[in-house]
Every structure is written in structure tokens, then in C-alpha cells.
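Subject: mismatched residue count in predicted assembly?

I count 939 residues in my input, but I want to confirm that the predicted structure covers every chain. Input:
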Amino acid sequence: MTEETLLSVRNLTLTIPTGSGILHAVRGIDFDLKRGETLSIVGESGSGKSLTSLAVMGLLSKGIKREADEMRFDQTDLRSASPKVMRDLRGNRMAMIFQEPMTSLNPAYTIGDQLIETLRLHRRVSKAKARERAIELLEKVGITAAASRLGQYPHQLSGGLRQRVMIALALMCEPDLLIADEPTTALDVTIQAQILRLLVDLTKEMNMAMILITHDLGVVARVADKVAVMYAGELVETGPAKDIFAAPSHPYTRGLLRCIPQPGKTERGAPLGTIPGIVPSLIGEVTGCAFRTRCAHAQPACREAIPHHGDAAHRFRCIHPDGARSAETAEGEPV
Amino acid sequence: MLPFILKRLGLALLVAFTVSFISFSLLFLSGDPAAALAGETASGEDVEAIRRLYGFDRPMLVQYGEWLLSAVQGDFGESYYFKLPVASLIAERLQVTMLLGVCGISFALLTAVPLGVVAAIRPNSLIDRVALFLSVAGQAMPSFWFGLILIVIFSITLGWLPPSGAASWKHFIMPTVVLGYYAMPAIMRLTRAGMLDVLNSDYIRTARAKGAGEGRVLFKHALRNAIIPVVSLAAVQMGFMLGGSIVVESVFALHGAGYLAWESIARNDLPTVQALILVFSMFYIVFTFLADVLNAWLDPRMRSS
Amino acid sequence: MSSDVTDPLTAEIQGPTPREMLKARARGHKGLIFGMGIVGLLVLVAILAPVLAPHDPYAQSLMKRMAPPVFLGGTWEHPLGTDHLGRDYLSRLIYGARVSLLIGAVAALISGVIGTAMGVAAGYFGGKVDAVVTFLINVRLAMPVVLVALAVVAILGGSLTVVICVLGLLLWDRFAVVMRASTLQVSRRDYVAAAQVIGASTPRILLTEIMPNIFNNLIVVITLEMAHAILLEAALSFLGLGVQPPTPSWGLMVSEGKNMMLFEPWLVLIPGAVLFLLVLAINLMGDGLRDVTAPEGRS
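Triage response: the counts match. Full output below for your records.
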């Protein structure tokens, strides 16, 4: 299994010193990713999913402290990698696209300059060759008249086109891993579906692993092989996408799924679920289950260490061995 | 971009026209320029003679029209004091002032931009604090006093630099520092704020995600965007500096256009003063116009629109 | 849902009120404290000048010309020495604070009224009003301030009133620029739209909805322009075309000391240093007020 594992993260912890104490933004995250596999990290804003991906890329802001028992990308230990080694990986073997296509491209340079720069940072190729590659990729991401687009500036393109350019930019060096941080959130609904389809097709075609960060479970259901659910800096549940949707185990995951209508399951006219309460402050020591302040099944024991349940493939953290599923059924709540 | 340039040019001309009218009419504030010119000891007949000689007896608008008509042809009349054509007088003196202005703005840019960049890269570091101190002190420093202190230190005490005159490059060192320091704080603050802003932007994160090195991120991706507003500011400051050269030139006895302005004002030399106000205004108008055009050209969003 | 109040995760965060936060930020701002302290001190000195000054600032004594200050071997009779006419330097310095502060405050007030009226009108009414105001700002910026002020003061004669009026009529540009931008920002807010919807009159909206919300910015510009006016007055007086002798103006004192600079550099250093300190303090106060009222200002 190790030889096909591309990315392996164990006990990743991120802390941010603030004026009023230490913010425990991400606490003890584990996950693995194989070549060609798509992992979707799901959670509300502020749950630490973007920070986790930036930690993998080595792009955290200066103040943030990163600790992990293991962080391995292919043969490289990311914890001890020098800035030079990280630079050689970034944009080359691991690439990232961001939420805001409108502001993620440099306004001062043409699309072509920015695409060509990426390739020439990592490959010794002539400008002409890099230009050919740029045109090829723009066509691949579905941009027509690609050659003429090279001379255009970002502000001349629509949001959807810019996100396609960002994808082309990420793929210039054929990376092994693509991290997409909410790539469709800022786009129109019709464009969202196109971009998502494009990402799925490209990962298949190039046998590229992808971490797709989103708060949209609808997106997850369509593209992910594996799902990791994050809440307030913790991974509460992780497993194959099919299992998570068929048998959500953690109370938070079930709460999330109740918030979206599911064809065939949600009755017409029935109110959608909500999760009452707000995300707790993570400043200072955080012990026990962070979801206990909003969980219907919370008990005093939730403040203690929380055990993992399930097998290596599908795991969740909760004091209830069945994630309080039996309690919910007894109360007659919809599952 | 051409419509933008034409529109901007029209505005510049309109401003220039208005300024010319104001600078001309300012000198009628005293009520009777003939009396001022004749001096306190002159008799009523003398004043009347002067009034007719210089045409002060005609309506002001007529005088303005004549003045403007010859001014656009480069004729600003004759200096009352020097008895020379004002235009050639100013042209001769402007060389010193222009040299001083170019040296001053270069000094300001060469110190302020690097300081602002470093301060933005390392906020709250020692360099950031030094830069902040220099800019706060610079904004409070009376330039005539700063000039005199430099003379006390470098001319009187150390004897390294000549205190006055314009004979060699050494004469320009202290005036350059004083004039440049006047423009430095604003440029430094804008560079720092612009760099901080840009460094937090999404496209800088994209550049890092590409695997670009720090140097490339800072200079190719960040500075290129942060410098655009600094270009405009530098042009505005250059305009202000030329207008402010009067103080520096008088401290260091540099016989430039600013010094000429001081002399002419003290001597009631109206045609020279009028022409100098117009010339300094024109410099400001031309500089800001060029800066806006350069700005539009540097910023692709404006270039194509 | 657990309502356990002892659980640290559910503990309600008791935030301070905006006013408390403002006060706390002000107390923690060294520049603001320093600036306000110095300005307060100099205002006090200016008010109490007749009490504090050891001598008449105009009394000449040719016998005691250019006595050195105490720290250069002088006597306590004249702690900061005497000038070229034998006048007590400390007394002139103390009375000079009156001139600087008076000119700075009144000039800033005049230009503040002009500039605020123009800026608020431009920002609120927009359209043609805005176009005219913007044009006037452009014209004003194109005129070289020192030169125009010098010329006008020279024509009208360098009295205190003339200097104040000329500076007041010249320095309104920054008020107009800042107030225009602030008004533009505020008038887009919902509460202004709400006031318009319920039929409030334009003067009422300007006074009760717009002015209170741009007041912080106005205070900041007033302080900065006051410093600007003080510096300009000093420069005009230094060039001999501002406040006329024997009025004790710091700029004039520097100018008078300049001729003796070779032998008695302190004649130049002392008034310039006080001028620098006052302007520095006012600027620090202005910057501090901006930081405190708009915390996103500096990093």
C-alpha cells in the first residue's frame, strides 16, 4: 500500500498565536491519498480545511506553527523539506487552485506570461515550447481561440474563464497532486458544474490525485472517492464517499447531510435540517469533542479524550460507539 | 486609451487656463499695482505716468487677455527689476531648479522605495521602525531648518561641503537631501502600504503556489503592482518640490527659479512673479498629466479600456 | 444541546463595548499619548506666556547681545541666552508658541470650513457639483502654495491676520479631498437611504446622518493641516515675508539667527527644534487619532 500512497499525513496540528491566546486551528488530522484518487475535505468555513491544504503546500502564513508526526509526499518528508525542495515541488508535482478566480491571477501580466512562467520555473524549455504547451492546456480546459487568449490580461476574462486559466496554470507541469480549494464557490451555478466536470475528467485522464476542498456536499457526492469531514479543526469522520453518504456515523456528518435535500430521501415540502448553535472559539486549550456544544447527544464524557470507532477505511470520533445513531432513531428524528 | 488621454489633456488645459487667470489677478489684490511699483516716495504724477506706461489704466480683463496672448507665445513681458525679458530670465534660472528637482526626486525614490519595500516585507522589524521614524520626522521637519543644520554640521563644523552656490556637484548634495527628504515620507508610506496590500493578495499566493522563489515573488509579482500608484505620487511630489524649491534655494543661495521668485516678490517685480507662478503650476500640471498617462500605460486594466 | 455553563467551549465571550475598545486603543498608542502630551504642554505654555516668560519678549538691551544659554556657559538670568538685539530668547520662544498655535488653529479652522463644505457637497450631491469641486481641487493643487502665499502676503503686507487668512484660503484642498471621499462612502450606507426614504430634509440628513460619521476623519485632517499651516507660516517668516519683526515667530527667529549661525549655531537650533517638536507632536496626534478611530489603518 505504501508504494501507491502519494500523500500521507499523520497528526497534523496547526496553531496560531493571537492577541488573546493560542488559536488551535487544526488538531490531529490524519489522512492518506493514493495516486489518481480524489479526497474531498468537507466542513464549514473556519473548520481548518483550507489551512490543512496550505500546510501541505507549505504556503502557511508566517505566524502559523505546523507540527505533524508524519507528512510525506511521495518520497519527500514535507516536515523537513528545505524551502528550495518545497519550491521545486510546488507548481511542479503538487499544484493548487483557489476559490477566487477574480483575484488569483496577477493583473499586471498576460495569461500567456503567467502560464509560460510556471512551466519555465520547473522545466528547461524554450519560450516557444512553453507557449505551445500553454495553448495545448488552454484548449484542454475548454478555452476556445487559445492562442489569442495568451496575449490577454486577466481583467479581460470572465470568472469562469479565469478559473479555467487557473486550472491550466496548475496543470502546466502535469502534477501528481492537485489541491482545489473551493474552486467553484465564486462562480455562477451553471459554470460550477462545468468546472467540476472538467476537474473530474482531467484527474482521470492524467491519473492525478486531487484534494477537493468544499462546503458543498452535493459536489462531494459527485466527484469524491474519499471524504474527510472537518469540524472546528478536527477530522470527525473519514471514509469512502459511498459509505459516508450511505451510513454517516458522526452526529455532525448526519447533521450536515440533513441540511441538503437528497433525491428520493427528502420528502417534498419537508423542512431541511439545521444544526443549531455556533462554532466554538478555538483559543486556548481545546479538549474533548469540539462538536459537543451543538450536539443533541452530548454528555459530560464528551469533554474527555474521544475514541476512534470504525475500521481503517471508515473512521469517526465520538464517545458513542455508533455515533448516537440508536439514540436518534429512538427519538424518532429523521436519519 | 486614446480617449482617456484626450480627456485628461482637456482637463489639464482647463486647469492651466484657470491657474493663469488666478495668478494674473492675484497681483491686483493690492488695488493699485502702479502705486506699489512706483514706491512710497513717488508723487501722484509719477504713479500716473507708470500707470499709463504699463497699461494699468485699462480694464483688468483686457490686460489679462493681452498678457495671456503673449504668454502662450513665450513672452512674459519685461522684468521691472532686472530690465530683461522675463522669459529668458526664468529659462536661465530654471536649469538649476530642474537639476535640483531631478536630484531631489531621485534621492527620495532611491531611499523611500527600498525602505518601504523592506518595511512591508518585515513589518515591525527594526528597519520598519527606522523607516517609520524617518517618515514621521520628515513630515515634521521644517526644510529651512534642516538645511541650516546640515550647513552647521557639514560646512561649518566638518568643512566637507560648500554652504552655498551652485558651482559644482558638491553644492547640490545638501539641497538634494533637504528637498528629497521633503518628498520621502509620502512615497515611503505609499510603497509600504501598497506592498503590504499586494503581498496579502491572492495572486501572490498563486505565484508562491507555482513554486516561484521569494525574489521573483517580491520583485516580479508584487513590486510591479505596488509601484503603479507610487509613480503618480512621485510626479505630484515632483510638482510640489519645484514649488517648494524657493525655500531650499534661498537657504543654500542656489540661484534658481525659486530664488528668483523670492527676489522678485521682495522687489515687487510683478511680471516675473506672475510668470513664475504660472510656470511652476504648468510643471505640476504637466507632471501629473504625464503620470496619469504613464499610470494608465503601466496598468493593463486602464491600458485596454 | 448542552447548556452546561461551566464548559469552557460554551462560555459566552464578554466583549468590550466599542467605546471601551476605543479608549483601550488610545491608551495603548504611544504616539498618540506622546503627541497629545506635547501639544497640551505647548498650548498651556502659550496660554500662560505672560506668567511663564521671565522677561518682556520685546525688551531690547544692546549691552546684553547674544548672551549664551545656560548649557553653553550663560547665566540663569537668560536661561536660553539673548538674540542679536539682546532680547531674552526663552521669553521670545514662549511668546512664539502663541503665534504658531494661533496661526495653525485659525488657518486650519478657516480651511476646514471651506474644504468640508466643498467636500461634503461634492460627495453628497455628486454630478455637476462634484465635477466643479473636483476641478477646483485640481486648480488649487496646481498652484505652488509657498509661492502664492509669499506673493499675496508681500502684496497685502505681512500682518498676523493676513498670514492667517492667506493660509486659511490656501490649505482647504486636503479637507475637500478627504471629506468628499468620506461623504461618498457614508452616503451609500443604508441608514442614509433610510433617512431619505422617510423624507428627511437634505440639511437634516447632512447634519444628523453624514456629519457624525465623517467627524473622525475631519478631526484627523484638522490636526494634520494645522501642522501644515504652522510649518508654512514658519517658512514664510523665515523668508522674511510672513509675520514681521518684532513679533516673536519661530520661523523669524531662525531667520534672524541665520546671520550669526557661524558663531552662535544655537540661535538657529533652538527655535527650529521647538518648531520641529510641535509639528511632530501634532502629526503624531493626528496619526494616532486615525489609528485609534480606524484600527485597520496601519498593519
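The domain at 28-293 of chain C is CATH 1.10.3720.10 (MetI-like fold). Marking this ticket as 'not a bug'.
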